[in-house]
Automatic annotation (TrEMBL):
Residues 80-151 form the Thioesterase domain. The keyword Hydrolase applies. Keywords: Acetylation, Cytoplasm, Cytoskeleton, Hydrolase, Lipid metabolism, Mitochondrion, Nucleus. The keyword Protein transport does not apply. One of its GO terms (molecular function) is fatty acyl-CoA hydrolase activity. It holds the Pfam family 4HBT. This is Acyl-coenzyme A thioesterase 13. It catalyses: a fatty acyl-CoA + H2O = a fatty acid + CoA + H(+).
Amino acid sequence: MGMGMAMGMEEQETAAREWLESIIAKSQSQDAAGEAVWKGGFFDSLSLSDLRISRLQVGQALCSFRVPAHLTDGEGNWQAGAIATVMDDVGAAAIMTTEGLIKISVQFDISYFSPARANEEVEIDARILEHKGGRRLTAVVVEIRKKGNGQIVAVGRQWMTSGRPLHSNL
């Protein structure tokens, strides 16, 4: 049994929720613009500042997000890099619900279909597709849709590999 298998599924879902919530909380700290940049995680927290967790269950993370103006380009469209950051972190949370590990992206493909604008509400749905190499590699697909009409904003597929254990006692 791998390290992630030692945790129960409920514990893994809780760990995924706590991990996402810690990133969101970082954006609200007064240190977010200073020392946090050099400690890592600042850009994740900047891009996830308004993320709301709707559901975490085995193999899936479902979140909603109102696109903040500070993550848009000169035309008011949600920036591609900020979209990629949200997809990467919500995809990692979906994997954490089954693995109990923070995984690292080794391949990430994103197709952008339609822009989301400042203050527009979107839904991010990340689901595990498959595992390879004894669960060492995990594929996840992440879809972002506009909440109002279901229009696809972007679809990403990524492979992630084992990182470090979330809990040192595993």
